[in-house]
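Progress against Task 2.4 (sequence-to-structure conversion) is shown through the following example record, which the project officer requested during the mid-term review.
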Amino acid sequence: MFMPESLSDEKAKDDFATNARLMCIAYAATSVVMALEAWVKYAKPGEKFDETEPPSEAFDRQEVVVLMGESNKGPKQKFLPIIRSGNGKFFGFGESDPPSIDQMKGRFAQILPSKVIDDATRDLAKAMLKVKGVKRTVPGATPRLSRRRR
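Structure tokens generated for the chain above:
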């Protein structure tokens, strides 16, 4: 699992996307799934999608958790609409029924390399991650909280 420390600004988001691509190259990933909270907007039936308006600023935007998967068989997405209670707190997820999506764009799309990467390129990606201070999480190495006995 690879998680960002922060996605507070455009640079942090770009850095995370770049590092995720480097991780996929360095460790010869054959599939990847990103889980993100996002604003989305959809083109209305029969209308052309307006690419000039950012989804976060659109009047008809929708808040979702998006699962974006990629493998050698292609991309797949699942959008889970976020439902909030009257006070704005998370309540649950709505039904996922977006229109068919033929293309995903943005900094978090196309994370997986489109071709098999050679060993030299993988080694270079590992060196770049090391210089950037990015570390791979090893399963089971996550500290666990101990329960205090009463």
